[in-house]
Hints:
By secondary structure, the chain is mainly alpha-helical. The protein has helices at residues 2-5, 21-29, 38-46, 59-69, 76-100, 110-122, 126-135, 142-158, 162-175, 181-193, 198-215, 224-241.
Amino acid sequence: xxxxxxxxxxxxxxxxxxxxxxxxxxxxxxxxxxxxxxxxxxxxxxxxxxxxxxxxxxxxxxxxxxxxxxxxxxxxxxxxxxxxxxxxxxxxxxxxxxxxxxxxxxxxxxxxxxxxxxxxxxxxxxxxxxxxxxxxxxxxxxxxxxxxxxxxxxxxxxxxxxxxxxxxxxxxxxxxxxxxxxxxxxxxxxxxxxxxxxxxxxxxxxxxxxxxxxxxxxxxxxxxxxxxxxxxxxxxxxxxxx
Length: 242
């Protein structure tokens, strides 16, 4: 706050842009936290608990009281609240940096490993994405192990490493009691276009169609387009098998 109060009396600071910490927070925790408010991230991620904090919604009222009464003690709590906000943002920036640079190797949650891999894949750093996906496969709950395996398979397919992708899809199939139709479709595509094994492609396409019908049994009339795509694939593969 001191910097704000004397900003006209000190040399102008160089321009440096800004960092969108909300964007980074949402990438990592939107699926594990009920919201990405700073107050919730403080508690659940950073382990910070504020004591005797002045709620932010009271700040405007207290500020106008201060203008009327000219008593600085009225806004003391507001200034302390803002100071803690700034310190929390600095702490959050450091924490996000440590996560991205893999400096918290013993403290990464399964969800964080998965989201870090997705983040690196999004920005085009496939090697780092592979690193975090693979790191997440060690001793994780089935839910995240499946997500990580599917993400790895998709990335290997993108890189042209088809055999690795197929091995991972088969691994997921063995682990799940209910296999999504999308997995069988991926296998059908690979066997048709990469391996030219039309019999296997047809088997996977038919499996995908059967699972899809189960997935959408309550959505009559809403999936006609998808149904046509399934039937066209099966018809094409049956023709290729002749």
